[in-house]
Amino acid sequence: MIDERGKERTPFAVATIAATTGSVPRAAGSKMFVYCDGRSSGTIGGGKFEALVLADALRAMREKKPLLKTYPLHEGDADSFGAICGGEVTVFIEPQLTSEALYLIGAGHCSRAIARLAAECGLFVSVVDDRDELLAELPRAVTRISDSLPAEFIASREWRSDEALVIVSRNHEIDREALAAALRQTGAGYIGMIGSKRKVRDVFDDLRRRGVPDEKLAKVYAPLGLDIGADSPAEIAVSTIAEVLSVLRQRTARHLRTEG
Length: 260
Prior knowledge:
Blueprint: E1 12-21, E2 31-35, E3 40-42, H1 47-63, E4 67-72, E5 88-96, E6 101-105, H2 109-120, E7 124-128, H3 132-135, E8 143-145, H4 150-156, E9 163-167, H5 172-183, E10 190-193, H6 197-209, H7 214-217, H8 233-248
């Protein structure tokens, strides 16, 4: 089953009336919640004014920046939209953005080490495995998924650019089928698979025979991780999380030392 903690990752924005002058429909402090799919809850006044705030909130979420904006509710102003209340409303729009997400296929030693480090880094972490005894060893913040086969779980989701899929299961067959399912999907910001170079070559050759084009395979990080000479599960976790974050955040993972 799926642990309900953190099951949903829904970005939203809080639109708060920060100040008012003159006649306005709602008092300062009134709030509206705007969700990334365009839904809203609560009200700050309704009508065209609220529709404009909703559109601005969606834009603020896309740009990941807060917005403080004054809306004139009277005729004659250059920015007026036909409202006749007579006052002005200043609204503070505050995007509430979710952290990046990491979905792990497998709950073995390496996966559990990666999950622990990812959770400590503030990522939303989920682990897919049918072994409840291993899932039980994960931190409480990690979402456990045991009622879906990995390939089925991957196929069931709409993947987003701030989500990483890391395939580290207990055998090549599970990894291969999980990767095949992942490459039939679009949207994920990172797809990685653990394994030796020989394993990766064998899996890739099998997928090519199934018709997976090389340009899709070229986007897979396999073997996964940055080259730090990682050996233990803890070191593999450091290598993997560093690579995942650098890819999702579009950073170079270069040294930060000052030259000269």
